[in-house]
Amino acid sequence: MGSAMEQRLDQAGIAGGILSHADPRLRALVRRRPGRVVFDIVRSYALIVAAFALLAFVQAPWVPLLAFLVIGSQQYALFILGHDGMHTNLIPNRRWNDRLATALLLAPLGTRVKSARVAHLTHHRYLGSAMDPDRHVHVASNKQTRSAFLLFLSGFATVGKALVRILPFGKSGAAPATGPVPGAGSLGARLPVFVAQAIVFLAIWSVLPFWAYFVYWMLPVYAMVFVADEIRAFCEHAQPVLPDEAADPRRLTTFEPNALERILFAPHNMCYHAEHHLWPFVPYYNLPKLHALIGEQRGIEVRRSYVGFLLRYFAALPSLGAAARPSAG
Predict the structure, then answer these.
(1) What are phi and psi of 32, to 5 degrees?
(2) Per-residue pLDDT tens for 124-149?
(3) Who's near 201: CB < 8 A, 6+ residues apart?
């Protein structure tokens, strides 16, 4: 974490004093459980296969929408597991962690673990500063009107930047202060994505028309992975305050949402996002324990609902300012 962020944490009273790296309680939460990871991966793929089986063998009007929602939600669950892979939190061996994250989690969704890792870890290091590559997602200055906010919620305002960064034919993964990833633009680096997409396409085509790949695989990736993740990231780091610099010391937020919002916006405990930023080496399945361990801390805002925050932000437009900041909830 960068020194600027550390200073903000110190000012907020939530720096290492809560849990030092030597604290045995924290050390217990850091232990990897590969069996849990394998179980969660298998469960998501089993649900995806079941959804495609419904599409192939059940002729009912409710099947397409249900299958779309199940496939998209499980794609997002796999993506969040891939996010833990960026932090090397899946299995202890880094090489096998990266192979697992690439082959089963990120390549089927169209991205690559090494280039994604560079940008994501830069976001962690420079959160709340101009060096954060995801700052455009969090700030309010580009969402000052209702039309601009709705455009952001559609994904159209940010998809171009994401495509350049993650797609196999885009530029190599680069982030501010880090530069490009060595070899990220090579065919070898991009090959896993092409192979994974070919496997997915052929698997779907074996039981459904070819267009099902685009409707039931690629479209959910956009609508329920990319858009959902942009919305989640906004909710977890945004403040409806201008100028943006006034909000920078207050970009650590944790959510305690209902079950439906957890499925759609925060699978695998991503709702405990402030905890994740402070202790990114704690695996996803231990974040609830970490949340309970640190309790309520000054400097960590707790909100209750992603949808609720979005509605309050929308209602505050266009008069953003300190007085318009919605309360937790």
Answers:
(1) -80, 145
(2) 999 999 999 999 999 999 999 999 99
(3) 210, 213, 217
| C-alpha–C-alpha distance, residues 266 and 73, integer Å | 10
Residue 196 reports pLDDT greater than 90: yes
Give residues with Cβ within 8 angstroms of 33, minimum separation 6.
283, 285
pLDDT in tens, 230-289: 999 999 999 999 999 999 988 999 999 999 999 999 999 999 999 999 999 999 999 999
Q: How many CA atoms lie within 13 A of 56 on its CB side?
A: 15
* Residue 255, beta-bridge partner list: 303
User: Is the torsion defined by CA of 195, 285, 265, 2 positive or negative?
Assistant: negative
Contacts of 62 (CB under 8 A, 6+ apart): none
* CB-CB contact of 192 with 103 (8 Å): yes
Of 222, 123, 229, 235, whose CA–CA distance to 173 is shortest? 123
| Cα dihedral sign, 211-264-160-48 | negative
Q: Tell me the pTM.
A: 0.88
Question: What percent helix, strand, coil does the chain show, rounded to 5?
Answer: 65, 5, 35
Residue 246 CA to residue 122 CA, distance in Å, equals: 21
Q: How many CB atoms lie within 10 A of CB 1?
A: 15
Tokens of 167: 């797609």
| 21 confidence band (pLDDT: 50, 70, 90) | low
In terms of Cα–Cα distance, which of 220, 285, 236 is closest to 47? 220
Q: Which residues contact residue 284 at a Cβ distance below 8 angstroms, ignoring those fewer than 6 apart?
A: 80, 81, 84, 89, 268, 269, 270
CB atoms within 10 A of CB 22: 8
